Amino acid sequence: MKEINVAVTGAAGQIAYSLLPRLVSGETFGADVRVNLRLIEIPQVVDKLEGTIMELIDCGFKQTGSLLATADIREGVENTDWVLLVGSIPRGIVIDGKKIEERSDLLRINGGIFTSQGHAIGELAKDNAKILVVGNPANTNALIGKTKSNNSLQSWFAMTALDSNRAKAQLAQKANVEISSVTNMTIWGNHSPTMYPDPYNAKINGESAVQVINDLNWIENDYLPLVQQRGKAVIDARGASSAASAANAAIDTVKAVETETPKGDWFSAAIPSDGSYGVPEGLIFGFPLVSSGQGEIKIVQDIELNEFAQSKIKITSEELLSEKEAVKDLLD
Ligand SMILES: NC(=O)c1ccc[n+]([C@@H]2O[C@H](COP(=O)([O-])OP(=O)(O)OC[C@H]3O[C@@H](n4cnc5c(N)ncnc54)[C@H](O)[C@@H]3O)[C@@H](O)[C@H]2O)c1
User: Fold this and answer.
1) What is the set of active-site residues?
2) Atom of ligand 1 nearest to the CA of 87
3) 56 Cβ inside 6 Å of ligand 1
4) What is the predicted pLDDT for the residue at 101?
5) What's the pLDDT at 313?
6) Mutation pick for ligand 1 pocket among 86, 162, 245 (CB with most ligand atoms within 8 Å)
7) pLDDT computed for residue 89 by the predictor
């Protein structure tokens, strides 16, 4: 069996609990690939991972390779093919007597984490490693991590697949079609409420979703806020942030990168901008992507963006520029 090494931070968290079994079950990397898993946590929590490891063993998947729990990021990411950066410090946590509520504080605290993780990945993960940032604020965390990795051979992604799945689900429900009929979804920009889940270029059975649904009022005033605010709605209803659906989206992203994109379709993730569509170069920005299945990822070009789309893309670009500004001293 072929072997690959995969590291996951935040391994004792909620998302990881849904994610880890699916990484070692054959579902994500294929039935003929053995997955060696490194579970990375903060020192206060790392002992709990012994229980997680017991459960993974008890799942009995033949694709499960070695299982290691560590609080040492360097040990965790050494010689890895994939690193899933799920761990981060959530809004509302109390640090040194201060409740962390502001996005700028959140950016700075997580920026520190992604600085050391980026260094370790750049130095120790494989040169063709792929890194998926799930922990929020995901795009700017990825910007910091990628900058600090100082290794242009590795590929960094921030996750927007959950937003894409949410957007497809809303369009499918409205049009009363199977979700598999909805293709070509792009989440432009930031994984935050400023994202633009593009309904004009998304297709339902090959036709523009906006034309099929034929209700511009619903698209602009219901669909967009529904998708943009879905994360908050789940928190309000569940008392905790999306976990099973976030883990599912992480699996979808890994599979989308690892396999050739079906002809005519594309997938959504945030990658460093090369200036396409006027997006400032270097920002980790949600784009429509295609994968060769052999490690090459390209931004789909020549997608038509009407004035409405351009105004939305401007808003999310400006938010990412202001996040970049807030952590600029971490990007030297
Ligand atoms: N991109 C997305 O679509 C998306 C969707 C849902 C959630 N999220 C984000 O994913 C993150 C994880 O969510 P969760 O529900 O699993 O949270 P959680 O609080 O249940 O788990 C997070 C875990 O990360 C660990 N952690 C913190 N700092 C770490 C570090 N430096 N190294 C290793 N581990 C560390 C914590 O100890 C904790 O166990 C959050 O930031 C959440 O906002 C992103």
Assistant:
1) 191
2) 24
3) no
4) 77
5) 97
6) 86
7) 85
Q: 90 CA distance to ligand 1 centroid (A)?
A: 7
| Cα 216 to middle of ligand 1, angstroms | 36
- Cβ of 137 closer than 6 Å to ligand 1, yes or no, is no
pLDDT-flagged residues of the chain (< 70): none
**Token pair 């979700």 is at which residue?**
179
Pure H helices in the chain: 14-23, 49-59, 73-77, 103-124, 138-149, 161-175, 209-213, 216-218, 224-228, 230-238, 244-258, 307-326
What whole-number distance in Å separates Cα of residue 45 and Cα of residue 47?
A: 6
Q: How high is the pLDDT of residue 81?
A: 98
252 lines ligand 1 (CB under 6 A): no
Nearest CA to ligand 1 atom 9: 135
Q: Which residue has the tokens 């070695």?
A: 66
Provide the pLDDT for residue 274.
98
Helix, strand, coil percentages in the chain from 3-state DSSP, rounded to 5? 45, 20, 35
pLDDT at res. 102: 79
Distances in Å between the Cα of 47 and the Cα atoms of 66, 85, 88, 135, 298 are 17, 19, 18, 21, 41
How far is the centre of ligand 1, averaged over its atoms, from the C-alpha of 221 (Å)? 31
- Residue 332 has a pLDDT of 82
Does the beta carbon of 319 lie inside 6 Å of ligand 1?
Answer: no
In the chain, what are the domains? 2-158 (3.40.50.720), 161-326 (3.90.110.10)
Give residue 236's pLDDT. Answer: 94
> At 289, phi and psi to the nearest 5?
-125, 150
**What is the model's pLDDT at position 144?**
97
Residue 104 has a pLDDT of 79
pTM: 0.97
Q: Is 35 helix (H, G, I), strand (E, B) or coil?
A: strand
Q: Which of 141, 241, 242, 271 best tests ligand 1's pocket when mutated (most atoms within 8 Å of CB)?
A: 241
* Number of neighbouring beta carbons within 10 Å of residue 238: 10
Q: What is the DSSP string of 302-317?
A: -----HHHHHHHHHHH
